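Anyone? Bumping this.
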Amino acid sequence: MSHPGRLEGKTAIITGAGLGLGEGITRKFIDEGANVLLFEVNKENGQKVADSLPKEKALFFSGDVTDQDHWHEALKACLDQFGGCDIVVNNAGVVHRAGPSFEVPKSEYDRIMNINVTPLYHSAAAIQPFFAKQKHGVFVNISSISAPRPRPNLVWYAGSKGAVSAITKGLAAEFAKDGVRCNAICPVIAETGMVASVLGGTDTQDGRATVMKAIPLGRFATPADIGNAAAFLASEEASFITGIELPVDGGRALQ
Ligand SMILES: NC(=O)c1ccc[n+]([C@@H]2O[C@H](COP(=O)([O-])OP(=O)(O)OC[C@H]3O[C@@H](n4cnc5c(N)ncnc54)[C@H](O)[C@@H]3O)[C@@H](O)[C@H]2O)c1
């Protein structure tokens, strides 16, 4: 017997959907029956992923998550195309090259904060009034295991993700009265373009082996791991879960 998808009839805006974890989340959401607006700044990648998905279920929206006007336009595009909006996944994010904290240029610090934190403000400002009016909605924010467990050399990135986790919990408390849930996912290092930066600039077998040793389940996260967790948190199965940071880290935070 086939079951309906977890997200059948739902519509999601997913940021950074053109690559890495965002692409994995998008594919999982489509598999679970959702419509997806792919909110992505890289036109080529965003369009490529959208083109690989069923036309009636996926729409590429070319935009920058640091621009609040783009959030208003994304919501409008979503409503025009799919007739609704139920879920926002704040996934787009960047990392600085791992290294001693005072050697990270201030411009990198600013870029990290601007892209990893500020879009949470914009998404709340642009989307929450709509969610509150319809009395339901879900935000899933991609934080990092470095938020609850910061370690040397990725300090500014961890700080930005600490803000993502704290903001998620605060908004969860504030938006609950409107039937809106907010949760964060905390991935460990994942198989994406970020690996080289997290390893200090170069993706080497030695670097990977060192990090791998500290992950009890013995591998990096995959886009599918994060897609699975995001689909659960966005679904009705998680209807009584709000304000959590869900580690998807192979046990890394235990060490
Ligand atoms: N890869 C990891 O090891 C890891 C671990 C923990 C958390 N995360 C988090 O997961 C999220 C996704 O990371 P990833 O590894 O898939 O990265 P990635 O670099 O592979 O993909 C990020 C995507 O976001 C897009 N993007 C960047 N800035 C944007 C903007 N201003 N507006 C719209 N789109 C923008 C990029 O074009 C890209 O398609 C990030 O928030 C990251 O911090 C990643």
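Late reply, but here is one note on the structure posted above: The CA atoms of residues 85 and 130 lie 9 Å apart.
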